[in-house]
Design brief:
Length: 246
């Protein structure tokens, strides 16, 4: 059987914190990554950093020893998404995102490419995560693009489609965790942003849970940006969050 990331979860040594490197330069990202690597389970590299710093930033962050979550939300024809996933794997990422609204064929192509490329490279299969409805979308946004104006219903529909297409993980908002856990197979991993400890100042995240609440609700991974990187002492903030998980 193919080895599947993350193996540490099976041994109980899993650190579920994914620190978002939402900074505009390689220099800032690497400083943050070096400080945080011992205290987090993975780093998330998104569109801002990747577009500014290029693929090399993935290799350099990976050099800290932490896992890398490449959050570029691929959405294209199946062949192009499959090739994009293969390119991401060659950079040695452990998690990456695709849009479930690209459809079942696109998702199957992504998962198949992840398995085949990992085998070629002799690495564990990364987690291909499906993004359902962006939390910035509401009923009006869905109506605008010709979907039923029912965000919760659309999340459920896309989550079911993703799992039937073979995806093993989804990104979801904190308030979707319990609903998704209610019908998804237990092996499906849930990755959740929108985490706040209560200590930081208010910002644009409206629907949040604490790290402990999100894990108790059934999340496997917590994507945490500002509560860590904007803290006075990012390393101490990450360690405090980890300790809060008990
Ligand atoms: O700073 P903060 O903790 O809000 O950062 C959360 C991270 O998760 C950001 O990188 C953001 O883009 C991402 N994210 C999110 N909400 C979603 C999907 C992704 O906040 N629904």
């Amino acid at each position: 059987m193919a080895r599947v990331y993350p193996r540490a979860m099976a041994t109980g040594t899993h650190n579920p914190i994914i620190a978002a490197l939402d900074v505009p330069t390689a220099e800032q990202a690497l400083t943050l990554a070096a400080t945080l690597a011992p205290a987090v389970g993975a780093f998330k590299i998104g569109g801002e950093l990747f577009t500014a710093a290029g693929p090399d930033i993935v290799r350099r962050v990976r050099d800290t020893g932490a896992a890398v979550f490449l959050d570029l939300k691929f959405h294209d024809i199946p062949n192009t998404v499959a090739k994009s996933v293969a390119s991401a794997l060659r950079l040695d990422v452990q998690m990456l995102t695709i849009h479930t609204s690209g459809g079942a064929e696109m998702m199957r192509a992504a998962e198949k490419s992840a398995v085949a490329t990992a085998q070629q490279l002799g690495r564990p299969v990364p987690l291909v995560l499906g993004v359902t409805v962006l939390t910035s979308s509401d009923a009006a946004t869905l109506a605008e693009i010709g979907c039923e104006p029912d965000p919760a219903g659309q999340v459920t529909r896309l989550a079911r489609l993703a799992v039937s297409a073979g995806l093993r993980g989804l990104v979801c908002s904190p308030l979707e965790i319990v609903t998704l856990r209610g019908f998804l197979p237990a092996h499906v991993q849930l990755v959740t942003p929108g985490i706040r400890t209560g200590a930081e100042k208010a910002d644009d995240q409206k629907r949040t849970l604490t790290p402990r609440e999100a894990m108790a609700a059934g999340a496997n991974w917590l994507v945490i940006g500002r509560p860590i990187y904007a803290a006075e002492n990012p390393r101490a903030a990450a360690e405090k969050i980890l300790a809060s998980l008990g």
